[in-house]
Amino acid sequence: SQQGEEDPQALSIQEGENATMNCSYKTSINNLQWYRQNSGRGLVHLILIRSNEREKHSGRLRVTLDTSKKSSSLLITASRAADTASYFCATAGDTGRRALTFGSGTRLQVQP
Amino acid sequence: DARVTQTPRHKVTEMGQEVTMRCQPILGHNTVFWYRQTMMQGLELLAYFRNRAPLDDSGMPKDRFSAEMPDATLATLKIQPSEPRDSAVYFCASGLVFLGAAGNTIYFGEGSWLTVV
Predict the structure, then answer these.
(1) How many whole angstroms separate alpha carbon A109 and alpha carbon A81?
(2) What is the mean pLDDT of chain A?
């Protein structure tokens, strides 16, 4: 079963706008990661945030983590048409199975 | 440019046939994962190996699926016999995971697109 659930399932915005995707998870985690998948391709790691961190930045990406609410958000600023892809959050538990479990993904469409 | 290599990229087969998918992990990575992606179920973890030893294959239907790592440069996922419901994209991923650490970054191959008719 999936640990994380992304919201919204699909998002369509105009180039230059910001895109925000949310992820909720169920159990205690060691870290949370975001991955991107272009159509027909494999997933590519974007950013990792540890359970003791609240916010992290990488280029146009900003990730927040709220462990009390078991939620994370991914913000892509000044979006580009090339950002069109599916975005997945992935979590690894701090006990038991430690392989990454992926959410259902958000399909982002950036209109040029 | 190190990458995870998967073969075949696309496979169409008839129900009942054996399917073998192969993966070459990134050199030096000690953990290999097999995931399956479908529209309905999303990404599901099938199995994973650490230093070639199977750590968890609870996500894999045992009656028809098997996963092995004959050596450090090759992981295989076999389906025998295949069924239409096995149609999916099968991803291999690898990572360098230290003992006691959880959830390090993993690197995905491009996937094997399987269609069973």
Answers:
(1) 8
(2) 91
Contacts of A2 in chain B (CB under 8 A): 42-43
- Calculate mean pLDDT across residues A47-60: 95
Nearest chain B CA: its distance from A18 CA (Å): 26
pLDDT above 70 (res A62): yes
CB B15 within 8 A of CB B83: yes
* pLDDT surpassing 50 at residue A1: no
Q: Which amino acid is at B52?
A: R
- Pick out chain B residues at pLDDT < 70: 98-103
How many Cα atoms sit within 13 Å of B52 on the Cβ side? 8
Q: How far is it, in rounded angstroms, from Cα A21 to Cα A43?
A: 17
Chain A partners within 8 Å of B101 (Cβ): 30, 98
Sequential DSSP letters for chain B: ----EEE-SEEEE-TT--EEEEEEPPTT--EEEEEEEETTTEEEEEEEEETTEEEE-TTS-TTTEEEEEEETTEEEEEESS--GGG-EEEEEEEE---TT------EE---EEEEE-
Q: B42 and A104: CB-CB below 8 Å? A: yes
